[in-house]
Amino acid sequence: MVEAFSGAIPIWAAIHTPFTRTGAVDAEGIRSNVRRYLELGLTGVFCNGLMGEVWALTVAERRQVLETIVDEASGRLKVSVVVTATSIPETLEFGAHARAVGADSAVLMVPTSGPRSPFQQTAYFEYVCPRLEMPVVLFNAATAAGSALDPTVFARICDLPNLTLLKTTASAAENNALRDVARRGVAVSDPLEENFLGNYRDFGQRVLFADPEPYLYQVGAARPIADYIALLASGRTAEAETAAARLSEIRAVFNAWVMDPLRRGHMPGAAVKVWCDLIGMAGGSVRAPLTPLTEAECGRLRADLDRCGLFAA
Fold first, then answer.
1. Which residue of 86, 102, 203, 301 has the lowest C-beta tally within 10 Å?
2. What are phi and psi of 159, to 5 degrees?
3. 3-state secondary structure of 282
4. C-alpha span between 92 and 131 (Å, rounded)
5. pLDDT digit string (tens) for 204-221?
6. Spatial distance between the Cα atoms of 195 and 193, rounded to a whole number of angstroms
7. Burial of residue 61, with CB atoms counted within 10 A of its CB: 0-12 exposed, 13-18 middle, 19 or more buried
């Protein structure tokens, strides 16, 4: 996992879990999507998270999803998996399974309920991380109250030898406070693609541990994110800025259908899945309490994507 953050700029994506019309996990759809991620040249994927509707998956299904991805990837794609569960023993069991099947890293959600004072957060990570016995990524999913992770906690747990990266969706100021205390080479990634160039230039962010943008924006031979990030990595910053600016239209669509609802507390899984279906990936249905898009909404999303040229790729 640490090696993946050196040299070229790694691009990771948070992936959804496709379901069939009957609501079952679509294993063949997962395999097809893995092949797409490989075609796009992604470094890795982050599964069984919020975009993966983890709250709707059984224990067996969480394991099935991971096993299917790892099997199809066959070492060609790194795999990071959320292991956080309702109890620490269950979390460690998910970690043991991830380690056994060959996942590259385990993801721990920063607690937003239960014991969460700075002292208790520190105790939680200091207890769980060493027992996972594999590289660990923290996911700091900000709430309406702001960052769930206290910078003093993060500063201390950076000493944990298997902690490699923090994915944080907090405000710019809160993310900067976390960056300021990062130590021992622990990377900090704001997952929003539209913030990456500025974070690379101004704060030294050298990995994009992203949301779904890397597979939603890139279709066929058109790889605009990978292209401008490659320009950045080669020192051609002005060209990278010009190339990145061309994504403004598709970013506006992404914000309207995915990020804006998410910021209001409405999980956008249905829109992500329709978008995937429209670009030839396995999107599929959603599970309760999520509801599918209406026919009219599907038509509007398709029209939005058509206007920004996605289907011409």
1. 86
2. -75, -15
3. coil
4. 7
5. 999 999 999 999 999 989
6. 5
7. middle
Q: How many CB atoms lie within 10 A of CB 306?
A: 12
Report the alpha-carbon distance of residue 243 to residue 77 in Å, rounded: 26
DSSP state of 312: G
The DSSP code for 165 is: E
Alpha helices in 58-171 (DSSP H): 59-73, 88-101, 118-132, 151-157
Cβ-contact 313, 220 below 8 angstroms: yes
Structure tokens at 307: 């206007």
Q: What is the pLDDT of residue 32?
A: 98
Helix, strand or coil, per DSSP, at residue 261: helix
pLDDT at 3: 40
287 is written with which tokens? 């599970």
CA atoms of 105 and 98, how far apart (whole Å): 8
Q: Please state, in angstroms and rounded to a whole number, the distance separating the CA atoms of residues 28 and 68.
A: 9
Structure confidence by residue, pLDDT tens digits, 74-99: 999 999 999 999 999 999 999 999 99
Closest CA to 152 of 125, 130, 171: 125
Q: Extract the tokens encoding 250.
A: 């598709």
Q: How far is CA 48 from the centre of its chain?
A: 10
Averaged pLDDT score across all residues of the chain: 94
Instruction: Give the 3-state secondary structure of residue 54.
Output: helix
